[in-house]
Amino acid sequence: MTTAQFDCQYCTASLLGKKYVLKNDNPYCVSCYDRIFSNYCKECKEPIKSDSKDLCYKGRNWHEACFNCAKCNHSLVEKPFAAKDERLLCSECYSNECSSKCFHCKKTIMPGSRKMEFKGNYWHETCFVCEHCRQPIGTKPLISKESGNYCVPCFEKEFAHYCSFCKKVITSGGITFRDQPWHRECFLCSGCRKELCEEEFMSRDDYPFCLDCYNHLYAKKCAACTKPITGLRGAKFICFQDRQWHSECFNCGKCSVSLVGEGFLTQNKEIFCHKCGSGLDTDI
C-alpha cells in the first residue's frame, strides 16, 4: 500500500501517523470504524468502541465492565456462569435461584451433585434415607408412608401386615375379612376360587363364598319361587315350620294377596288368607 493509498476506507481521511483499524484488509480511522462496526452493549446500550474489549455470548455483546451477574452484579469475566430467561447469573446465584432444594434439609442441591427424585420432590443423595434405620435408600426399593420413606426390610419390621392366605407381606391396599388382612388378589371364593374384592359375597363357617357358590351350597330356597334366600341388602324373608319364603313371595295361594303380618291357613304345601281358606280342610 502506497502512502497515497493509506486513507480511511470510509471518509478517505489520511491515516498517516494516526491510529486506525483494519477490517477485511481495509483500513478505517477509529472514528469511522466505531461508528460503522461497533456492537452495542446488551447492558448499557452504548456502542462498544475499538478501544474496549467486546465480550460476546450467543449473539449478544457486552462491555467488559458490563459483563456482570444479573443478580449479585459481580463480574463474570473468565468465571463460570449460566443463562436463565435472557439473564446471566454466576454459578452461586444460578444455584440459589434455579437449582432444586432438598426436601429434607431445604438446602440447594448444587449443579453436578447427585440428587434423588421421588414423587415430584428432590433430595441430596445423603438426605434420602430410610426413616427407621437412617441408611441411604439410593435406588433400592422403598415404601412410602405419611411419616416418611422406608426401605423394605424396615417397613416389613415396623408396619407390615401379613396376608392370611399366602402369609406374605401386604405392602399396599389389601382388604380385611374377619379382622384378618388379605391381599386383594388372595381373597377368593372358597368354592370356585373367583376373586371377591369387587364382588358381593357371603360367609359360612368363617369362609367367604361368592353368591353363586353360597346359594348353591347353603342358601335356603323359597317355597314359592324356589330361588335362593340370601338376606342380602336387608332383604326380609318369612319362616314357618321347615319352610321359608321371600317376603314378596309370601302370598295367598288362591288370590295372591300378601300375607306378611297377616293371619293365614295352610293346606298341604299351600298357604291361604282366611277368606280363601274358609271351608278348606286347612291347618292353622
TrEMBL record:
Residues 39-100, 161-220, 221-283 form the LIM zinc-binding domain. GO terms for molecular function: transcription coactivator activity; zinc ion binding. Its main location: nucleus. Coiled coil: none annotated. GO terms for biological process: positive regulation of transcription by RNA polymerase II. Signal peptide: none annotated. CDD domains: LIM2_FHL5, LIM3_FHL, LIM4_FHL. Keywords: LIM domain, Metal-binding, Nucleus, Repeat, Zinc, Zinc-finger. One of its GO terms (cellular component) is nucleus. It is found in: Nucleus. SUPFAM superfamilies: Glucocorticoid receptor-like (DNA-binding domain). May be involved in the regulation of spermatogenesis. Stimulates CREM transcriptional activity in a phosphorylation-independent manner. Interacts with CREM (via the third LIM domain). Interacts (via second LIM domain) with SPAG8. This is Four and a half LIM domains protein 5.
